[in-house]
Amino acid sequence: MFNAFSIGRSALASRAFSTSALSGLLGKLNHVAIACPDLEKASAFYKNLGANVSEAMPQKEHGVYTVFVNLGNSKIELLHPLGEKSPIAAFLEKNKAGGIHHVCIEVGDINKAIKTVKSLGIRTIGDEAKIGAHGKPVIFLHPKDCLGVLTELEQA
Question: Any idea what the CATH number is for the domain that residue 96 is in?
């Protein structure tokens, strides 16, 4: 039978992320990052819903301010540009109201994860892990190799 589910399933089966080589490599969803043109307004939105919201923290190496909304089982990371060369500024130029920027998935061993994804032909942004907003090593995977989604891997 020809239906949308079977089309989606077969399309995904041909993508690198659906291979068994990543089985056991990927852990839980750490956060979904949202680029925000107004960080105070975005923070207030989640505070008004009763969420535990952190203060804004500058991440100079990454060119962003981050705010974390703790949801218990996961987080939302609010991002706002820091400096003229911020990748978030470029994102907001194209998406004036903001929007989902990336997803972050935990891995047990970041170096093994980098080696595995590269062996599968998945491009990384940068050659090695950098320290991310949680003080842990992270690396980003190219969205063109990840179903159109910028994906961050973070050492658990």
Answer: 3.10.180.10
Q: Where are the alpha helices (DSSP H) in the chain?
A: 4-13, 39-48, 87-94, 110-119
Give tens-digit pLDDT for 74-89.
Answer: 999 999 999 988 999 9
Any domain includes 10 = no
Residue 62 lies in a domain: yes
- Can you give the three-state secondary structure of 5-25, one letter per residue? HHHHHHHHHCCHHHCHHHCCC
C-alpha–C-alpha distance, residues 54 and 67, integer Å: 6
Q: How many domains does the chain have?
A: 1
DSSP at 62: G
The pTM for the full model equals: 0.84
Instruction: Summarize pLDDT for 109-137 with one digit per residue, the tens.
Output: 999 999 999 999 999 999 999 999 999 99
**pLDDT at 11 > cutoff 70:** no
Q: How far is the C-alpha of 93 from the C-alpha of 33, rounded, in Å?
A: 17
